[in-house]
Amino acid sequence: MLNIALFGPPGAGKGTQSALLVEKYKLAYISTGDLLRQEISEGSELGKKAKELIDRGQLVSDEMIVQLIEKRIIASADKNGILFDGFPRTMVQAYILEGLLLKLNTSLACMLSLEVPREELIARLLERGKISGRTDDNAEVIEFRLEEYNNKTKPVADFYKDRNKYIPIQGVGEISEVFDRLVQSIDNTLQKVWFNLVLTGAPGSGKGTQGRLLAKKYNLYYISTGSLLRREIKAGSEIGVKVKDIMDRGELVPDEIVIRLIESEIRQHNNVRGFVFKGFPRTIVQAYILDGLLRRLDSSVSYCIELNASTIESIKRLNARSKTPQARSYDMNTELIINRLEEYNEKTLPVADFYNKQHKFASLNAIGDEKLVFERLSEKVEAAMKMLR
């Protein structure tokens, strides 16, 4: 998801630019003021509570604000992300937003701050007051609002500067000029966001072949847990000795071994556009492990594609591979092949459901020659990349 916070003092042009950004990137728009007014207008329980507070001249609590925002995010699953206008406004709200997005398995890509000189802001707001008749657009209130912004909101800017997510944008100029600056900054940010693809499917579905082709085409780094483990076995390392017997029996290698190898591989090759994970995660537990690992690196799984081949087709392919130099030890035994297919159905199919619930999953027909399947797969990957951006 592309989640952006648009920052700036009153009169900086956040409302105008928000509308343009929402349209271009197909984002859901979240303004706490708009959300409150909507709830009050609908007469919801939250709206009634908020109205009572506002009528008494009190501020709506952060707890109530976060309920409104979470409700709106969940209702916006069909969008490419969220544009936050006017939130977070305090350090407390910045921590709230970080925790809320983490709970929803996403994060803030950047905070864009419209920088406009004080004199220009005052002139804009006074002019707006003449046209709109807004009671808060008079000289006395404007001074107070700007002072309030500087006192409470500057620490929020520092919060995101420390996380390398704060981007100042020159807010003076024609609307189109400011918009172009915002778009350029967003697109630059997206270039730094990893695209992480989980490629799943039963043994013999073609994950290895297609994963390598995808990595080459899209400048992704291919990570195969099987290849990592075989490398350790060939090197005769301590890990290799431990896992050889396990792999020969066609069983899954313990998670603590696999995750150490994957994390090391990611850290050694972090200059790519992202990663293709083949053979991991194979279980729900591993799906959570991968999420946690990527979250530590300020990333996440972008999409999961299942290569769908029939059991008969998988057996045929594995049998054919057993007669090549690429043969695996478990390809030589029909009983082991069947055991691996049963284990996939029991333990790995729930992983597809895990990503499907996050709207990050597609199943692909893997029957056909290598080129045809790759064309289908490329279409899915490009659609997923477009959605991410």
TrEMBL record:
Q: Which PROSITE patterns match?
A: ADENYLATE_KINASE
The pathway this protein participates in, as annotated, is:
Purine metabolism; AMP biosynthesis via salvage pathway; AMP from ADP: step 1/1
Specify where the region named NMP lies, as residue ranges.
31-60, 224-253
* Top-rank EC class of the record's enzyme: transferase
Q: Which InterPro entries match?
A: Adenylat/UMP-CMP_kin (IPR000850), Adenylat_kinase_CS (IPR033690), P-loop_NTPase (IPR027417)
The superkingdom of the source organism is Bacteria
Can you say where in the cell this protein is located?
Cytoplasm
Please give a single GO biological process term from the UniProt record: AMP salvage
- Indicate which residues the UniProt annotation says bind AMP: 32, 37, 58-60, 86-89, 93, 134, 145, 225, 230, 251-253, 279-282, 286, 328, 340
Query: What reaction(s) does this enzyme catalyze?
Result: AMP + ATP = 2 ADP
The function of this protein is: Catalyzes the reversible transfer of the terminal phosphate group between ATP and AMP. Plays an important role in cellular energy homeostasis and in adenine nucleotide metabolism.
The entry's free-text remark on domains says:
Consists of three domains, a large central CORE domain and two small peripheral domains, NMPbind and LID, which undergo movements during catalysis. The LID domain closes over the site of phosphoryl transfer upon ATP binding. Assembling and dissambling the active center during each catalytic cycle provides an effective means to prevent ATP hydrolysis.
Similarity comment: family membership: Belongs to the adenylate kinase family.
Under the heading HAMAP family, the entry gives:
Adenylate_kinase_Adk
Protein name from the UniProt record: Adenylate kinase
List the source organism.
Answer: Lentimicrobium saccharophilum
